């Protein structure tokens, strides 16, 4: 009977550090791409030795939670498989219309749900940031259209406002792909009269629905917005590859 029991082994300090950092990542307190404190800072914060911190970081890197980057610093790696994005990134960078269209379909699935959750969970700093980004769009719309980066940040903030760690990590993994779809779509929209006003109205409706804590309306307007983008990219695809549409 006594053979089924195993001695309890006290955890090493480095193991406790690993568990604490993993917990912070899973909760979203340490987000994808975020730089973690230096070894010296972590040792001070945790009240442990630097060798224990160094060992924990090595373990987390081996597990795929952290990565060291050239030029210094250790960063949180996306929980999604970052290697999946590499071959796709090449196709998107070349503005392959079929890939851009496929990505817009993915965006519809992810971002309509993001808008729904954001309307339920967004905190005041996120609402303030969305309003700030919208105001920049509104101001720039009087020219030749707004900076695509502002548009991307607007959508990224909505995803962050879901407070769903995995959803944030997934978007972070393919954010460069999403940025390209926005850039191409906006370029196409800006060349047609009346589209800037229509797009600005979509962003305003999405923002106001989230501010009003109306999940269904937020999802509905995000769907309208991305459906318009999908239709525009379908035209772009037909121009480039008429045999596929």
TrEMBL record:
Segments forming domain HTH gntR-type: 11-79
Alphabetized GO MF terms: DNA binding; DNA-binding transcription factor activity
PROSITE patterns in UniProt: HTH_GNTR
Domain of life of the organism encoding this protein: Bacteria
Presence of the UniProt keyword Membrane in the record: no
Keyword annotations: DNA-binding, Transcription, Transcription regulation
InterPro entries linked to this entry: GntR_C, TF_FadR/GntR_C, Tscrpt_reg_HTH_GntR, WH-like_DNA-bd_sf, WH_DNA-bd_sf
Protein name according to UniProt: Transcriptional regulator, GntR family
Organism per entry: Desulfuromusa kysingii
């Amino acid at each position: 009977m006594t053979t089924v029991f195993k001695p309890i082994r006290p955890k090493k300090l480095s193991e406790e550090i690993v568990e604490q950092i993993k917990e912070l990542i899973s909760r979203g307190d340490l987000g994808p791409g975020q730089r973690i404190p230096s070894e010296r800072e972590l040792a001070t914060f945790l009240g442990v030795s630097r060798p224990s911190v160094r060992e924990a970081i090595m373990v987390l890197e081996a597990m795929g939670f952290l990565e060291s980057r050239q030029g210094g610093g250790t960063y949180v790696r996306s929980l999604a498989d970052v290697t999946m994005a590499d071959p796709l990134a090449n196709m998107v960078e070349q503005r392959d219309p079929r890939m851009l269209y496929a990505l817009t379909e993915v965006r519809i699935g992810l971002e309509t749900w993001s808008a729904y959750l954001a309307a339920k969970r967004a905190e005041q700093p996120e609402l303030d940031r969305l309003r700030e980004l919208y105001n920049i769009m509104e101001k720039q719309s009087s020219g030749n259209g707004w900076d695509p980066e502002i548009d991307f940040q607007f959508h990224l903030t909505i995803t962050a406002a879901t407070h769903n760690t995995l959803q944030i990590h997934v978007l972070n993994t393919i954010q460069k792909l999403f940025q390209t779809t926005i850039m191409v779509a906006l370029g196409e929209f800006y060349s047609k009269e009346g589209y800037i006003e229509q797009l600005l109205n979509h962003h305003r409706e999405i923002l106001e629905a989230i501010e009003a804590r109306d999940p269904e309306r937020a999802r509905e307007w995000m769907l309208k917005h991305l459906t318009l983008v999908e239709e525009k990219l379908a035209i772009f695809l037909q121009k480039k590859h008429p045999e596929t549409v």
